[in-house]
Every structure is written in structure tokens, then in C-alpha cells.
Specification:
single chain; 451 residues; mainly alpha; two-stranded antiparallel ribbon; two-stranded antiparallel sheet; 13 helices; 65% helix; globular
């Protein structure tokens, strides 16, 4: 609602009537602006969707809890007793294996960024990996938000647009191929009863994921393939879909300069597979921590199935879904209900809750670090300006607006000091600066990963 100042300096609400006229005059009704009404409707829809989402997640978590309770039956009372007799040395092994998994992911990202000439170390990317994992595990379909977060952190480290997008997409493709490899190995060793049913399906999935990751090793080929498909289907697809395909084709051509060697790509694939292998060791160690038996022939298959449940966009990090599904899988392979429930809870405590806690601490540290770097760069820029003679030492900053007598910019009396432009930070990827330009020289945000 707009207010009109009176001669006494007070602000009075305009009186609506049935007449129409100029806004601000007494006795005039001011109709609401269309964009305001549209914004209110959009906000109500967002709130309604959020409410429905929360109710759905609560229903899923409740159903998972009921399932675990009914599945465990009388054995559920023995779970607290199991936790009172833990084998702590296996818990230390689980923590070390989870640390190895995080290290593998950081090494993979570092190796891909180095392909674009960005000289970062694994230590620089460890907090980024932990923080990104916390984002992915804390939100439904959090992988998309985690990709956007990682991309912004790459830019702050100095990566260009094309390099950041390519590194994020290539790491995801390699990780998917690594998980398919673990699942395929698990299907091979599970036994003859399930081998014939699972191996053909998982082999087909592995071939598809391997081809997809290989195309990211030569993104120019993938761009030309999309362009060729677009020429054949351009008249049959909606214009919006064609526009997106053209944007993807241009983005992939920008990434054409990133062509790692076959040996480097195989090492990246091996490290991506080791990431999942280390995490499966956490599951084995969790079962041994609670004194339960380990189904060695089926543990990789159970682990791969649990990771697929994590990726379902139902609850954050598969909360509730993974606990119920993994407990059921372990009991199917002759693990007692009590040990399966306790082992699953211990595995999730290390691989989910501990990583979420550490990841958000890392995210807070990164935010504080970038703020300090931004302030430091602004002070350095101010010092360089003073040394160059642009601003005399001890003098106030020149102001833009009404020019004064000698031609220098200045504010008039009615200007606000807050309208002065902020100091430009030097190009280096610190927090608060604009995104870096593409490595190939262009600028833009086509195909940018979602924030």
C-alpha cells in the first residue's frame, strides 16, 4: 500500500472509494498491480508445495519406522543391548574408510580441474567435497543443489565457466560408472541363484554409463552428435527443447579443449570406483562393530542397492528409505534381524550423520574463508589505488554524481552514499566477485548447473 505525506509530515492511508482516478488523491481506489497479484499467487503455490513436500517426507519416514519395527518384532528390544557391546576398533576402521572415500572424491575433482590448467591441490578441494556432500545429503534431490554449490566453489578457486561445468559433469559420469562397476562385481560374486538374473541387466547399465563417461573425455564429439541429432529432429520437437539442445551443443563446443589422455581418464575411473569401494568397507566395518555376520558374497550388491535408494528424491539422503531397505536386504542374506538393524544404524551414523555434521562445518569454514579473502582483496585494491595517486592518503573516496568545480565526481546533498559502486576485487575467484569467464574466451551461463 502506498502512502502520501501530509503537510504535517505524517503519513496517512489513502481512502478507497468506488471511484477511479489518479493514485494518491483522496477518494481514489488504487487497483492492485498485476505483478503484485501474480507474486502473491506464486508465493502461495510455493508454500503449498513446501507443505505437501514436508507432509510427504513425514509420511515416508513414519512408514519406514513402522516397517522396521514390524520387521524386527521382538528382536527390536535386543538392539540397545547390541550397542552396549561394540567392537570399537572396527568403528575406527569405518571412520578411516570413510575418510579414504572423501579423499578419492577430492583427488578426482583435483585431477579434472588440472586438465583445464587450474593449479589446485587435494587439500584445497577436501572442504569443498565435504560441504557439497552435506548439501546433497540434507535436501531432497540434493545432488542437483550440490552440483551448483560445487560449481560456485570451483569458480572461487579460479575455474572458468566451461571448466567448472565440465569437471562437475565428468566427475558425475565417472562416479556413476564406478558405482555400476561395484554393482556388477557384486552380481558376479553373489551366487548362481541371482547371477543369471542380475548380470545381464547390470552389464547393460555398466556399458551405457561407461560410454557416457567416455564421451565426456571428448566433449567435442558429444557436441557434434547433439548438433547432428538436432538437424534431424528440429521440425518435430518443440522450440523450447530445440533451444536447450542448441545451448548444450554450444556449451560442449566450449569444453572441446579438455581432452585428457586415455591413461589419465582410466586413473580417474579407478579412483571413482575406489570411492565406492571404500564406502562399502564402512558397511562391512559397521556390521563387525555390532558383532554381526558379514554376507561376503552379497555385501557389494546390498551396498549398491542402498546407494540407489540414497539417490531417490524422496527424503533427504534417503533418510528412512535406506535404513528400511538395507535392513531388509541384509536379513534376506541370512543376517539376524537384530544385527542387521544395528549394523544399518551404525553404517548410517558414519556415512550419513557424521558426514553431514562435518560437511556443514566445512561449509561454514569456506564461507568465512571467502569473506576474509574478499575483505583482504578490497584492502589491497584500496592500497594500490592510494599508491597510484588516485586517492590521496587520508582523503575520502571520490564520489560519483554531480561534478564539482575541478571536474572530479562528487555527490550532491540529496544523494545517498550507499549508491557508490563497490570496489572491484581483483580477478582471482574470491567470494563476492563475478563468475570467471570461460576458459575458451566466451562469457555466459548456458547450461549452468542449478544452484
Amino acid at each position: 500500500m502506498r502512502f502520501a505525506p501530509t503537510s504535517l509530515g505524517h503519513k496517512l492511508r489513502s481512502v478507497p472509494t468506488e471511484s477511479t482516478g489518479v493514485e494518491g488523491e483522496p477518494g481514489v481506489r488504487v487497483p492492485p498491480r498485476p505483478e503484485d497479484s501474480h507474486g502473491d499467487v506464486s508465493r502461495r503455490k510455493r508454500r503449498r508445495r513446501t507443505l505437501h513436500r514436508v507432509l510427504f517426507e513425514v509420511a515416508v519416514l513414519s512408514a519406514a519406522a513402522v516397517f522396521v519395527v514390524l520387521r524386527a518384532g521382538d528382536s527390536l528390544g535386543n538392539v540397545p543391548t547390541t550397542f552396549r557391546h561394540l567392537h570399537w576398533h572396527w568403528l575406527l576402521v569405518a571412520g578411516a574408510a570413510e575418510g579414504g572415500s572423501i579423499f578419492c572424491l577430492s583427488w578426482l575433482q583435483q585431477r579434472l580441474l588440472r586438465e583445464g590448467g587450474l593449479g589446485v591441490g587435494v587439500a584445497d578441494l577436501l572442504p569443498v567435497t565435504m560441504a557439497s556432500n552435506a548439501v546433497a545429503q540434507s535436501l531432497p534431490a540434493g545432488t542437483l543443489f550440490a552440483e551448483g554449490y560445487s560449481f560456485r566453489q570451483y569458480q572461487k578457486l579460479g575455474a572458468g565457466w566451461a571448466l567448472g561445468v565440465w569437471a562437475e559433469l565428468a566427475a558425475g559420469a565417472l562416479a556413476a560408472t564406478g558405482l555400476a562397476t561395484v554393482a556388477l562385481v557384486g552380481a558376479v560374486v553373489v551366487g548362481p541363484s541371482l547371477r543369471l538374473e542380475l548380470v545381464p541387466v547390470l552389464a547393460f547399465i555398466w556399458v551405457g554409463s561407461a560410454l557416457a563417461s567416455a564421451l565426456f573425455a571428448r566433449p567435442g564429439i558429444l557436441g557434434r552428435l547433439i548438433a547432428r541429432v538436432l538437424r534431424h529432429v528440429q521440425g518435430r520437437l518443440p522450440e523450447k527443447a530445440c533451444t536447450k539442445m542448441r545451448g548444450a551443443e554450444r556449451s560442449l563446443r566450449d569444453m572441446e579443449c579438455y581432452q585428457p589422455s586415455a591413461g589419465a581418464w582410466f586413473r580417474c575411473f579407478a579412483v571413482a570406483t575406489c570411492n565406492w569401494a571404500f564406502d562399502s568397507v564402512v558397511l562391512v566395518s559397521a556390521l563387525l562393530t555390532v558383532g554381526g555376520p558379514v554376507p561376503w558374497s552379497a555385501v557389494l550388491l546390498c551396498y549398491a542397492a542402498a546407494q540407489l535408494l540414497v539417490e531417490l528424491p524422496i527424503t533427504p539422503g534417503g533418510l528412512g528409505v535406506v535404513e528400511g531397505g538395507l535392513t531388509e536386504l541384509l536379513t534376506r542374506f541370512h543376517v539376524g534381524v537384530t544385527q542387521a538393524t544395528a549394523g544399518t544404524l551404525m553404517y548410517r551414523a558414519v556415512s550419513y550423520w557424521l558426514l553431514v555434521l562435518v560437511g556443514w562445518v566445512a561449509a561454514a569454514w569456506l564461507a568465512a574463508h571467502h569473506r576474509r579473502a574478499n575483505r583482504r582483496s578490497q584492502r589491497v585494491s584500496a592500497g594500490e589505488e592510494c599508491a597510484a595517486g588516485a586517492v590521496p592518503a587520508g582523503a575520502s573516496w571520490p564520489r560519483r554524481g554531480v561534478a564539482d568545480g575541478d571536474g572530479r565526481g562528487g555527490f550532491d546533498q540529496d544523494s545517498e552514499a550507499s549508491s557508490a559502486a563497490p570496489l572491484a576485487a581483483p580477478a582471482g575467484g574470491v567470494a563476492g566477485t563475478a563468475p570467471a569467464t570461460r576458459a575458451t574466451g566466451g562469457e555466459g551461463n548456458e547450461g549452468l548447473a542449478p544452484a
